[in-house]
Amino acid sequence: MLVLDPQTHQPATEQRILLHGVTWAEYTQLADAFRNTFPRMHYLDGTLELLMTTSPEHERLKKLIARLLETYAMEKRLNLNGYGNTTFRDEAVRRGAEPDECYCLGELEAYPDVVIEIALTSGGIDKLEVYAGLRVPEVWFWQDGRLRLYYRQGNTYQERTQSVLLPELDIALLSQFMAYRNQTEATIAYRDALQRS
Known about the structure:
The chain is 29% helix and 29% strand. It contains five helices and eleven strands, in the order E-H-E-E-H-E-E-E-E-E-H-E-E-E-H-H. The longest helix has 21 residues, at 56-76.
């Protein structure tokens, strides 16, 4: 059942569908048909997760993290390039993903270096297993009101308190600005904090 937020008339929660026994050909056909639109898809060896809707809170959080990370990159003069929520897939490992946000450090490559996922609901495909197959070095989840970072070592991820790829990035400091409702105020305050440190 689709529940609407009474103030925004948007979906109040994310609507997910899980399909099993989906072939690679069926997945790629669906992904191509819905390129750059809903549903967003994650594919893991025959299981397809369709994210039919995102909540306004989901979109707000992903945009805020992106703006804060981009502010950090500008202040530190880092070469950070974003893909947004582009589709990445690899038939050899039967993996496909559409991250909420993602970036390459340096020039854009075939796969991102850092993926950001907003996890407001539980269940669904193990996204770390998907990203491990796609050889993404670092995955950040906003989950339960905090930023959780995972770094790939071999074929699995280990949770970290700091970014391995951006070792000078103070995750605790960045996370303080996630409480702001106004994204512009948050990025200005974060930029001021970075300039003071």
